[in-house]
Amino acid sequence: MKSGILRYILYSLLAIFIIICLMVTMPRIWSSLNKDKPPVGYHFMAPAYLALLTGLEKMADLTPAVPDSVEEIKDVEYKRVGEKSLQFDIYRPKNLAKPAPLLLFIHGGGWKGGKRSDYLVYLVDFAERGYVTATVSYRLLGDSPYPACAEDIRDAVKWLYSNGKKYGYDPDRIALIGGSAGAHLALLTAYGWGNGISDSVSGDSLTASHRIKAVVDIYGPFDMTTEYARVHPLVTNFIAASYDSRPDLYEEASPYKYLGRDNPPTLILHGTSDRLVPVSQSDTLKARLDRLGVPNEYYRLPLWPHTMDVVKRVNDFCQVKMTEFFKKYL
Predict the structure, then answer these.
(1) Mean per-residue pLDDT, 13-41
(2) CA distances in angstroms from 65 to 70, 136, 148, 187, 289, listed in the order given
(3) What angle do CA 295, 298, 303 make, to 5 degrees?
(4) Cα–Cα nearest to 24, from 45, 7, 38
(5) Helix ranges (DSSP H) in the chain
């Protein structure tokens, strides 16, 4: 009797061990056999951590050294609000022979955190590929709620339109790239939020001679009016009002409001296990862009959570798809 119970326990432990091993190793095995497909993740955090601990996965180097071939220009002020200086960091190839496309990266952080250096891994890698790259600071919720950050990104883009010659980029070939809250701001700006509204940099409108050429949305929110978004504390804090009291602001802050046939080409990258920004947000964006005939590319990364690109395998995939996208549209 006792030996039967012991055997049952041992078999159960063995089965659990085998299941854990499969959960940890199968994503890598599947991806190695399907190299042309988006990398598969783990859905649950426990096997993801195990994969990192055992070396099956590696974290992307989020703080790479700036190589000798790239010039780093830090703390370039584009706007001052009271005593707060809002700035760019700019990276450009030292051997730049002619104006290059500019990639502007907008950090995430739930509109309440994050910093310019968060996307250094992208800034350096794309500068090494011949692009001028930049990262931008904007007012966070501790400074002011919506629409402050949207105004800042609009003004930052206006500043970039006027300073291409000084920094060696082509102001007619600018792409916006953002993750999470940064993707939301990238979509808002690229799709036309604030067009026709006087900007605080120069006093004229943003509707004149330049346009954003392309936009990359990495797991960003697209519609602030969904039932999920209306009551999410990040969104209600961002808007600084309840949906019932100011539904107009929730709509105004949603990139979907600015969709049109003249929107720039859009690249979307989103993990299907994202519990913060549901992948349905990107599914809806893709469907709406298709109906309008706006060029777009969408990659659903199976079983990856929010901030999936901190994992090297995902970051590498995102960079490959972004490079292909930029070559096509910039």
Answers:
(1) 70
(2) 10, 19, 32, 30, 38
(3) 175
(4) 45
(5) 2-33, 45-53, 120-128, 148-162, 164-167, 181-191, 227-231, 233-239, 247-252, 280-292, 312-329
Would you state the torsion angle of the CA atoms of residues 177, 178, 179, 182, taken in this order, to the nearest 10 degrees? 180
Structure tokens at 68: 């000798």
Q: Measuring CA to CA, which residue among 28, 123, 133, 15 is closest to residue 66?
A: 123
CA distance 100 to 92: 9
DSSP 43-78: SSHHHHHHHHHTTSS-B--SSPPPPTTEEEEEEEEE
CA distance 175 to 104: 6
Q: Is the pLDDT of residue 130 over 70?
A: yes
- Whether the link from the prior residue into 233 is cis, omega within 30° of 0, is no
pLDDT, mean of residues 86-110: 97
Of 207, 206, 190, 153, give the one whose Cα is nearest residue 294.
190
Q: Is the pLDDT of residue 140 over 90?
A: yes
CA distance 314 to 304: 9
